[in-house]
Here is the input.
Amino acid sequence: MEQRTVVRCAEGHLFSTSTFPMQNLGPGRLGPGRLIRCPQCGRLRSSVPPDVGALSGSQLARAMRLEAPEFLA
Here is the structure.
């Protein structure tokens, strides 16, 4: 089963992605955000992983249903 990461775009939309580009480089090198196309607004947005502990179960479930398009670059 593929691992999914829940992220929040700059507009506040929660969604999940199977790839979080360059996450192994860490926030100290590139900053915490990555450009990912948001499935809700359809725009390329800076997205960051939210504090999952602060999200409700329904927010997490909805984010897992909304999947970002595969990262192609």
User: Anything to note?
Assistant: The radius of gyration is 12 Å. The beta strands are 5-9, 14-17, 34-37, 44-48. The chain has a mean pLDDT of 81. The CA atoms of residues 7 and 49 lie 4 Å apart.
